[in-house]
Automatic annotation (TrEMBL):
Its cofactor is Cu(2+). The crystal structure with reduced Cu(1+) has also been determined. The keyword Metal-binding applies. This is Halocyanin-like protein. GO terms for molecular function: copper ion binding; electron transfer activity. Keywords: Copper, Electron transport, Membrane, Metal-binding, Transport. One of its GO terms (cellular component) is membrane. Signal peptide: none annotated.
Amino acid sequence: MVGEGTDGGLAFDPPVIEVSPMTNVTWDWTGHGGQRNVVALDGTFDSGRTNAQMGTSYHYIFDEVGEYRYVSEPHRDEGMKGAVIVKERESSGYPAIDQWLGSTGNFDGTITDRTGRSEATVAVGAEGNGGQYAFDPPAIKISTGTTVSWEWTGAGAAHNVFSTDGSQMASDGVISTDGSPLDSELVSEEGSTYKHTFEETGVSLYTCQPHQGLGMKGAVVVE
């Protein structure tokens, strides 16, 4: 977010993100705080003329590893700064997951093994992605017939659990639909739960719709 409604709108939210190469990062203007732009200190990217219009957006694909610091030129001295850290991550062994979670800050390539259990739990609103904007663990592996329970922490505003393009399943990187999408209500109350039983093998990719742009995404491998 450009011009987040804190500090008089003089902030990027989150101020620092970590992504993998070839991630497309988008900055969205909130309309708070007047004229803004996004300019890399090393000249790598530049959104151009300043803009105060809510709904304006600018994106850049980071194709090289490195640390990219940037500012909003009109308010650089007031501390309106940010950074994008681009680094390689270990492969999970599932290309679709690596691509989907490429911009998810709390994903390091590890898929948490929950196979052989009747139920597995994922926290909603865990620490990550610049705030309480993460699923934890972000990627899990379960057996068919396992029920996954998403449990809300009550932090990070309202969240939901929603499949990408319905319920997307991936096998060896090829995505298809299994006909049983994840689709919870938007909830903020601590202790709320949403459950789904996975009956088919594959990889289910999902997100929190309000915070997808921050990297709040997850995946379930069913085997």
